[in-house]
Amino acid sequence: MSDTDLVARQLLLLARLVKRAESAPVEPMCLRLLTMLAEEGPFRAGEIATTLGVHPSTVSRQVAGLVRAGLVERRADPEDGRACPLVVTAAGRRILDAERQRQAAQFGAALAGWSPEARARFADLLGSFVNDLQRG
Hints:
Blueprint: H1 3-21, H2 28-40, H3 45-52, H4 56-68, E1 72-74, E2 86-88, H5 90-111, H6 116-135
Antiparallel strand pairs: 1-2
């Protein structure tokens, strides 16, 4: 088995472990939408569907639930009265903050036995890997 195959297997396992450990009060797709809107938004629903590569009806259902829950709101677009960009509310940001803190604690616990040098090397290699994926 090649190094690339081993890395791919480990990343798939990591993705499953992270997904299993998600405990936010919203489903994973909604968490992705909240994160995207908080970090890169505002966006229109159609832009979200295109970016995530999902059907617009899927985004519409997720957005409707987030709006009902008070985690996202539609704002009037001053340039196009028909458009309604979506933004994360204060309640949505609290959900994201809590999820980030929970994940940081979980990852911190997993790394607790590592030396500071090993953690720094891991962070450096992981950062390089993510940057290469984003460029690719």
